[in-house]
């Protein structure tokens, strides 16, 4: 794999997203912290030896951390905003997603001092708690006027995962730790309700690879994977394995069974049934498999996954990975393509989607 992986080209592609982007990317300015996350984590996963040079930008990342008073209360909440563009004085514009992005970037750049001297663990945990809804799920942000979960945000398994990941990185390890801030019983009930008849997780009984990964990663961080029954585990394993599209070495061969099968998808994973393969779903499906069983590499064909990513969606000219073999590379699919490859070679922590070395060093330093 190493000879096919164009690391130096990917380094350049990722660094470009940390420097000057074309005007076509202007609409992504509110998501600037997400761009930083995918770029820094990609460089770290690819062992870029000059990543410490980006520590000069730590003050910019730290300034995205905001703390403010809850409406009609004496208590405070805190979190990260995505960009100076949405950093509006006196208005709560931070979100769960940007908060997780900010924390993991600081961990990757080894800014452990932030966690001991700047981060207010109580207020950030209170923000997470405030985002939980009555049905146990989470919204990504709060209404700036009422301080309640935003009525215009969706509530789904993505934000359940992000909420639990934030609490994990800010010190929660045991069930008692998590229950200080969120209703774990209600969260587990919500996750259970998202189980689909054929296996996997999703809304309206339609399993989705991304939601499945989020559900399983949430249970993993909560240390609640025993919450999954053996019957549902087997169904989910089968459903996930059936998402690898190929005419060789897979559970279901595609000839005459998938009207949308494209032979260039060979070895990739699809997000749902009868869909094309997609770089990001290689990570989501492999992460789910790795959480469900330690024997996951023997159940799917990881060689075919490598071939799909390196021969089909890797851009060998300008670097980066694309959604499919017909698209241009983008920063989101680039990082998840790298993450899938690193999950296979054993250097990535799947539930937190970050290099094991960075996570372990942080945990060692956080006591």
TrEMBL record:
GO terms for molecular function: CAAX-protein geranylgeranyltransferase activity; metal ion binding. It comes from Vanderwaltozyma polyspora (strain ATCC 22028 / DSM 70294 / BCRC 21397 / CBS 2163 / NBRC 10782 / NRRL Y-8283 / UCD 57-17). This is Prenyltransferase alpha-alpha toroid domain-containing protein. It comes from the Eukaryota. The keyword Zinc applies. The keyword Metal-binding applies. Its cofactor is Zn(2+). Belongs to the protein prenyltransferase subunit beta family. Keywords: Metal-binding, Prenyltransferase, Repeat, Transferase, Zinc. Residues 5-345 form the Prenyltransferase alpha-alpha toroid domain. Coiled coil: none annotated. One of its GO terms (cellular component) is CAAX-protein geranylgeranyltransferase complex. Pfam families: Prenyltrans.
């Amino acid at each position: 794999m190493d000879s096919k992986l164009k690391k130096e080209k990917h380094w350049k592609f990722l660094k470009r997203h940390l420097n000057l982007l074309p005007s076509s990317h202007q609409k992504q300015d509110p998501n600037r912290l997400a761009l930083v996350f995918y770029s820094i984590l990609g460089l770290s996963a690819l062992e870029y030896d000059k990543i410490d040079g980006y520590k000069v930008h730590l003050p910019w990342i730290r300034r995205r951390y905001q703390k403010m008073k809850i409406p009609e209360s004496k208590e405070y909440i805190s979190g990260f905003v995505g960009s100076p563009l949405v950093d509006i004085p006196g208005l709560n514009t931070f979100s769960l997603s940007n908060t997780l992005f900010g924390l993991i970037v600081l961990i990757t750049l080894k800014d452990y001092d932030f966690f001991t001297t700047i981060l207010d663990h109580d207020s950030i945990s209170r923000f997470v708690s405030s985002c939980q809804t009555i049905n146990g799920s989470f919204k990504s942000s709060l209404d700036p006027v009422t301080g309640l979960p935003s009525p215009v945000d969706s509530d789904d398994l993505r934000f359940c995962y992000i909420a639990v990941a934030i609490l994990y990185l800010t010190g929660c390890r045991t069930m008692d730790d998590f229950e200080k801030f969120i209703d774990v019983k209600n969260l587990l009930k919500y996750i259970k309700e998202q189980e689909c008849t054929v296996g996997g997780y999703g809304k309206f009984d339609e399993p989705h690879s991304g939601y499945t990964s989020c559900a399983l990663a949430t249970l993993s961080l909560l240390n609640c994977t025993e919450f999954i029954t053996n019957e549902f585990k087997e169904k989910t394993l089968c459903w996930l394995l059936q998402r690898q599209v190929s005419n060789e070495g897979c559970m279901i061969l595609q000839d005459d069974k998938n009207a949308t099968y494209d032979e260039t998808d060979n070895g990739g994973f699809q997000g749902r049934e009868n869909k094309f393969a997609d770089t990001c779903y290689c990570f989501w499906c492999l992460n789910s498999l790795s959480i469900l069983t330690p024997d996951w590499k023997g159940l799917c064909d990881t060689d075919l996954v490598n071939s799909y990513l390196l021969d089909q969606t890797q851009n060998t000219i300008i670097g980066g990975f694309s959604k499919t073999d017909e698209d241009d590379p983008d920063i989101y699919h680039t990082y998840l393509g790298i993450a899938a490859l690193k999950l296979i070679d054993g250097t990535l922590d799947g539930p937190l989607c970050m290099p094991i070395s960075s996570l372990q060093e942080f945990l060692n330093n956080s006591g």
